[in-house]
Known about the structure:
Blueprint: H1 3-21, E1 30-31, E2 78-91, E3 94-101, E4 119-127, E5 136-148, E6 153-165
Parallel strand pairs: 1-2, 4-6
Antiparallel strand pairs: 2-3, 2-5, 3-4, 5-6
Amino acid sequence: MSNSLSRRGFGGGLAACLLLSGPARAKEVVELTWDDLLPAGVPSRPPALSGVIQHDAAPLARQQPVSSGVRTEWNGKTVRIPGFVVPLEHSGTGVVTFILVPYVGACIHVPPPPANQLVLVTTARPYEISDLFEPVRVTGALATAATATELAEIGYTLTAERIEAYKP
């Protein structure tokens, strides 16, 4: 093989490596489901929704089941997860802090799920909610962080880079 061919091959390979390792490379996004937030070996359980919820009884937050722990391997990773919005803080007409929940009505109409099934989301750009019953998909940096609100204990936080309507 001639030197000119090996140089061209090396140069092309070097250029490809630089492109793949440089800032232009897209971040790897990990697609998560709610089961992915549960510790290994913990079965997922649908919420126990039976009968009429007595809103004048104990606050829903006190009816929250105990969490079986969180998973730390997603710390600092960019993830994407679908869910429903429970607004906590607004800016103008958009929400900037909310709890992402796995099913409609969690924390509002029914007791909250365990902390490892709740994500506290913050966003710099307010998200305009058209309907609390429509799912969203949130992309951003996930971390484990125990947070207490008046609605529930929360096991994860996510700094949103993107919030979009979700079409399953």
